[in-house]
């Protein structure tokens, strides 16, 4: 959850730099990861296509995968992708347009004039590798969402915290579980669950109200005897984001021509 939180804030800040851009993504099969709350997307890389599951990170402008040969790759159960076995992979030189579009701190010129990228995330994880172009195919169902937590602009977040403090009758705890900012002390029942009544959350959009279940925004930590709200803040210049967890239990429709997003409650286990 800590890594998901840091990535969520990082993505929100990046959205602020590109809020006027709109991209239509392909439809794809997604699978929620129970440990991180992120979505895994099935993709087929190269020619012939090699199946892989990757995090659907719509907040980043770089798609990367671990390739062979590799000396310092993170351990994984699936074989490393071998670009030499793909007829469509092409490494990019340092003077190529995609390479020059990277920031000065995000690129360097490697051996034989090959472009190398350097990319760091909000949780201090990073990736370094060769920049290239490759064929990627997607599945035919579902949709990917890249931000786990709901992010609110700082001024609105402060009002949100004050309201919750009033509702819970106490200030947020000073040392919340890792990856959380906003947690409150709560009683734990005999079954080890958080006990008590919880506030009803309703998100107000232009032309619509979206009521949420407690599980959309609340996470119980019995060992800490706290309940945490899966909401974090960004700067007032950042963009508020309706996160993955808040969208659980909804079908979401995107009308690109009308510039409209619609939400409908749904039992996703039946789809």
TrEMBL record:
UniProtKB keywords: Hydrolase, Protease
For whether the record's keyword set contains Ligase, the answer is no
Q: Does the keyword Iron apply?
A: no
Origin, by domain of life? Eukaryota
Alphabetical GO CC annotations of the entry are: extracellular region
GO molecular function term, any single one: aspartic-type endopeptidase activity
One annotated GO biological process: proteolysis
Q: Where is the composition biased (Polar residues)?
A: 9-32
Say which species the protein is native to. Canavalia gladiata (Sword bean)
Region span, Disordered: 1-32
Residues annotated as transmembrane? none
Q: What SUPFAM superfamilies is this protein classified in? A: Acid proteases
* Pfam families attached to this UniProt entry: TAXi_C (PF14541), TAXi_N (PF14543)
Residue stretches making up the Peptidase A1 domain: 39-271
Name the chain's protein. Peptidase A1 domain-containing protein
Q: Which InterPro entries match?
A: Aspartic_peptidase_AS, PEPTIDASE_A1, Peptidase_aspartic_dom_sf, Plant_Aspart_Prot_A1, TAXi_C, TAXi_N
Recorded family membership: Belongs to the peptidase A1 family.
